[in-house]
Design a protein that fits this description.
By secondary structure, the protein is mostly helical. A two-stranded antiparallel sheet has the order 1-2. The N and C termini lie far apart (52 Å).
């Protein structure tokens, strides 16, 4: 059942990459869609080869792109080479759960960036952005899933199934709604 749910989730996450193109966070959805495509190939072939390493690579690349600026841009290829080196070394050396900790760290950073943006929109722009709320919930779901995987609790498997279902629904949401969709930002005003 987990494989079927994983196939469905990864298939659904191919579509937000298409619907979000040209938007401010399009790279985020391109990376998620590309990672989903690679994972989908592995799941369809009944292999979970280096899944943790792929997850870490994708998350670290996302963190880099969230913080990229003109100064960092000239180091882009060095960063990607270093990232590939770390990922390859982790795959061949089998550092235990090291990849999961790196994956968790990168996802917490991404969650922090989206949470900061949500709070900023709410306080400064006086808007409640449902799109950002869904991004925060998506990242929080991933962080909790990794946390349960690291602690190896009985709850972990059940949460994994629930979170994959929830993330599939969020994938559908991001396919149907863009950051600039009508009604996605709600004005916060004082009640009279």
């Amino acid at each position: 059942m987990i494989d079927q749910l994983g196939i469905l989730e990864n298939f659904v996450w191919l579509f937000p990459a298409l619907s979000q193109r040209g938007k401010r966070l399009s790279f985020y959805f391109y990376i998620l869609g590309g990672a989903g495509f690679v994972e989908l190939i592995f799941l369809l072939n009944h292999r979970s080869l280096f899944a943790d390493e792929i997850a870490f690579f994708v998350s670290a690349l996302t963190v880099y792109l969230l913080f990229e600026n003109k100064r960092l841009r000239k180091w882009r290829y060095c960063f990607i080479a270093l990232l590939l080196g770390v990922t390859t070394t982790a795959y061949f050396k089998h550092f235990g759960r090291f990849e999961l900790y790196l994956f968790l760290l990168s996802r917490v950073v991404i969650l922090g960036v989206f949470l900061k943006q949500l709070i900023s929109d709410s306080l400064i722009k006086q808007q409640f952005n449902l799109f950002l709320v869904c991004l925060v919930l998506y990242e929080l779901s991933i962080v909790l899933r990794i946390g349960f995987a690291l602690t190896q609790t009985q709850v972990g498997l059940y949460y994994y199934l629930v979170s994959m279902s929830f993330e599939t629904m969020l994938g559908i949401f991001f396919t149907l709604f863009r950051e600039d969709s009508r009604g996605i930002r709600l004005k916060i005003g004082k009640a009279v």
